[in-house]
Write a structure and sequence with these properties.
The chain contains 14 helices and 14 strands. The protein is of the alpha+beta class. The strands form four sheets. The chain has a six-stranded antiparallel beta sheet with strand order 11-10-9-12-14-13. Strands 5-1-6 form a three-stranded antiparallel beta sheet. It has a three-stranded antiparallel beta sheet with strand order 2-3-4. Strand 10 and strand 11 form a beta hairpin. The model has no long low-confidence stretch (mean pLDDT 93).
Length: 392
């Protein structure tokens, strides 16, 4: 049997403290401290606990070259090798480990930078209900945050004394773009009783996500022009729509084809089922879940990694890609008199399962949404300029 180590692996020492009633009764502090070693390998579904003895064999095996199991067994206990094979940290060419080898090789061939691969894989949420959790702990405003967390860092950074600052004169006149940017706020109140015209959806989607031009360099490679910038001109981010209140379109899931400016139906749902899915995707942030059109921004990492292979900066570039698109969407929605939002507090694992995305090859980084703003501000919105809500 030939063996090698998985390509991406981080080992973390963890410490946890739990209440211990027996310790308290015996005169102790009532706390139990536990220390453990944890392996973080992105091709696995979760972190894996390691014993101290299991760490050493991992350092004896190459991630590239295959080694004979018998030769490795001469350097360490064979039972440790078997344990690491079972945990998926050592990869074997034997048939009984074929599934694990296939999963690890798919990740290996995607050219992730190791640190960003670990951060992405283990930063994903699965079934989190952050909206409910915030209410349960009594955090519904900034004042609540200050009460529970203390004062935040200063809102303005000062690097010199005030007397040394060079004051800049305010602009003489404002342009329509200035007014538009001042009216951009995150919307938390949507009018579920009023359908969104498909014409408005069409305008926003075309402006934000459509390929404005496509130039073929080879028969299979093309340079795409969009209204937002993208590292290397690769535009890896796909838009998946969860539509729940748009005229002429059935509620459900759609994929947007940027080259043909077309929606591809993926799953037809009832209105109630669509809203339930929105709640699950949005980690129960119900103040966003009523938006007429919800957009899952899911980059195809392999497209960016094709050019920037195992590059330390490429994941940052992909996140910027998502940010550019979300800002273009929010500005566009504001211009057409709609409310919009963006959040990264999402259940990525739930979304990947529902959309049948192969984790680490493609996956959601954020969710945007837009629709008619409600007539009343029932949920707090940050609008200090009173550009949206009247002063009263």
């Amino acid at each position: 049997m030939l063996i090698r180590r998985c390509a991406i692996l981080m080992i973390e020492p963890r410490e946890s403290v739990e209440f211990d009633f027996d310790s308290l009764l015996s005169g102790g502090a009532g706390l139990h401290e536990q220390r453990q070693w944890v392996a973080l390998a992105p091709h696995l579904d979760a972190a894996v606990e390691l014993s101290a003895e299991e760490i050493a064999p991992l350092g004896l095996v190459s991630t590239r070259d295959w080694s004979e199991r018998e030769r490795l067994a001469e350097q360490c206990d064979g039972a440790l090798i078997d344990a690491l094979l079972k945990k998926g940290l050592l990869i074997a060419d034997a048939p009984e480990f074929a599934d694990m080898r296939s999963r690890e090789e798919r990740l290996r061939n995607q050219y992730w930078h190791p640190l960003t691969a670990v951060a992405h894989a283990f930063g994903r949420w699965d079934g989190v209900t952050s909206g409910e959790n915030m209410r349960n702990v009594g955090i519904v405003s900034v004042a609540d945050l200050v009460d529970q967390l203390g004062e935040p860092p200063p809102h303005f950074l000062e690097r010199t004394p005030r007397a040394q600052r060079i004051a800049l004169a305010p602009p003489d006149e404002k342009t329509p773009l200035d007014d538009l940017l001042r009216r951009r706020t995150v919307c938390r109140n949507y009018d579920a009783s009023r359908p969104l015209p498909i014409a408005l959806l069409n305008k926003i989607v075309h402006r934000v996500f459509a390929a404005q031009a496509t130039h073929h360099v080879t028969p299979t490679a093309a340079i795409v022009k969009k209204t937002s910038p993208s590292a290397g001109g690769l535009h890896p981010t796909e838009a998946y729509f969860l539509l729940q209140n748009v005229e002429g379109l059935a509620p459900g899931l759609y994929h947007y084809h940027a080259g043909e400016h077309a929606l591809e139906p993926m799953q037809s749902l009832t209105r109630d089922a669509t809203h339930a899915l929105a709640m699950r995707f949005l980690a129960h942030q119900d103040w966003f879940a009523n938006a007429h059109a919800i957009v899952i921004l899911a980059p195809r990492f392999e497209r960016s990694f094709w050019k920037y292979r195992a590059h330390a900066k490429v994941y940052r570039a992909v996140t910027l890609d998502v940010g550019h698109l979300s800002q273009t969407l929010q500005i566009s929605a504001t211009e057409f008199g709609l409310g919009a939002f963006i959040t990264s507090a999402i259940n990525e694992a739930d979304i990947e399962r529902e959309l049948q995305l192969e984790s680490m090859r493609e996956g959601p980084l954020a969710i945007c949404g837009f629709g008619w703003r409600a007539e009343k501000c029932e949920r707090m919105e940050f609008d200090p300029l009173r550009a949206v809500w009247p002063k009263e």
